Amino acid sequence: MKKRKFMLLLVFLAILILLQVNYFTSMDRETSYYHLSDLGGVYNSSFENLDFSNEISGRIISGLQTVENQPPDISVEDLIVQTSQVQLTGYSNKLLSWGISRRPNHMIPGADPGAPELLEKYNGFYLGDTSKKEIYLTFDEGYENGYTPKILDTLKKNKVKAVFFITGPYLKQHQDLVRRMVEEGHVVGNHTVNHPSLPSLTDEQIEEEVLGLERAFREKFGKSMRFLRPPRGEYSERTLALTSKLGYENMFWSFAYDDWYRDKIRGADYAYKIVMDNLHNGAIILLHAVSKDNADALDMIIQGARERGYSFGDIELYRDSIGK
Questions:
Q1: Rounded CA separation 231/254 (Å)
Q2: Catalytic: 288?
Q3: What is the CA radius of gyration of the chain?
Q4: One of 280, 288, 296, 299 is an active-site residue; which one?
Q5: How far is CA 50 from CA 55, 130, 196, 264, in A?
Q6: How many Å apart are CA 170 and CA 216, to the nearest integer?
Q7: What is the spatial distance between Cα 51 and Cα 53, in angstroms, rounded to a whole number?
Q8: Residue 82: what pLDDT?
Q9: Which one is catalytic: 112, 129, 140, 293?
Q10: Which fold has domain 58-321?
Q11: Which residues does the chain have with pLDDT short of 70?
Q12: For residue 13, what pLDDT is reported?
């Protein structure tokens, strides 16, 4: 009798495991909205709980050298979440940090060895159309520093569309600005609710961070989110796979600079020059909207790029054109 009960227990546990595996291998954003344990996450979020001290990895290298695919002073083992839920996905959770190496003469920057192939495998990307002089503006909107209205005015004046990546507190507290983004034809992307390092989270937590924000955005504006920018540029094969299954395209970048420090004001000319020096075909340009330099330089950047023969593309149209 005891042996029979033990066998029944094993069968029951096996069924539970199979059900979990089936859930994580078949989930998509439509069905997963209703599995979230915290549907009010966006409205309970706060800027005080977001960590922007290391906004992106900062691994921006000049020249032709390569970079190691791991951020400094971070233990990968410490960030691997040891739960059965993570183990069930079957994907590597090694912490990777997006890095690019700048190249002279407007050549396309180099990425970490193997990183472009990994992104492609899970429908991620960091470049647009490299066959022509087309570039794409993206802005990270972790929080508001008073410059977004000027950025939107400049984009409208110059008839340029951009992608704005927002967080939960941003959507909660600045719906007027998000509404402007939507109504003026820009793409609003997902920067998660609380701006965490995604490899440090369980599968369920990633789902809540990503779909929780999209659900609130859809409730307000009736639109879905297509692109995800992993906070701090930190990702793993597991996070790429999970977010791809949720229908997202992870959008990284081919140009960025250390513009996220509010107290590091170097002037519009500095921002203009560093962007001009690094223009290249298919460039996805990451600018932080908290930067006064970026806001003041944006009109010059748009005019300067056009004078050099570049046009500003629509990243959605490009991704649609290649069947992504």
A1: 16
A2: yes
A3: 21
A4: 288
A5: 10, 35, 8, 20
A6: 12
A7: 6
A8: 39
A9: 140
A10: TIM Barrel (3.20.20)
A11: 1-89
A12: 54
